[in-house]
Amino acid sequence: KSFLGFDETPLSSVFENIQAQLFKEKISLVLLLEDLSVVGRLDQEIFNALTVNQQEKDGYCPILSVAGMTDGGYAQVPDNQRQRASLIFQYKEENWSNEDIADMTARYLNVLRLPKEKVKDLAKTRVGGKEINLSACTDCSLREDCHNAFGKVDIGGMDIGFFPFSLHAPSSLLQRINEDGRGDLTPRTLITEVLEKFLGNIE
Fold first, then answer.
1. Which of 9, 108, 129, 189 has the fewest CB atoms inside 10 Å of its own CB, making it the most exposed?
2. Which pTM value belongs to this model?
3. Is 147 helix (H, G, I), strand (E, B) or coil?
């Protein structure tokens, strides 16, 4: 919180101040939170503030919040707070295959290897709705030996090498993490518990 400049001020008070100011400007407040785990103290305070401050009060602008969270995070939300939510949507990835996990892993590996400017070009291509058209492996002198040893994934006709993993390693690691109760079989867990931890020190 201190990093965000809030110090020890309750987040509910921070939101009230913002809502009071926006009310004067006749503006509503919309908050979109990608991943609210409700595990850390800050996440808990954010959730509490949102469920309390969404109630309409004179002199405060309306607040609409949409928060995404994993099944594990949602399970930790007290029943009385769940009842404050207007709508609850549950999405499950029913058929996330080994091939899907390998595809996502390959995309991350490719971005890590590409120069920053190439990553920007790749992002523009994806925003335009097209498949990736750049692979860091294309001009690599070790490409053939590396692909033979670690495997590769074909995405949009581009071969992306799987070093430092084998093709089945991310899927096996994700399954073990799920069995140990450390995460769900979701893209978020793949990123935080597998890719970030194994690739976090790569520069």
1. 129
2. 0.60
3. helix
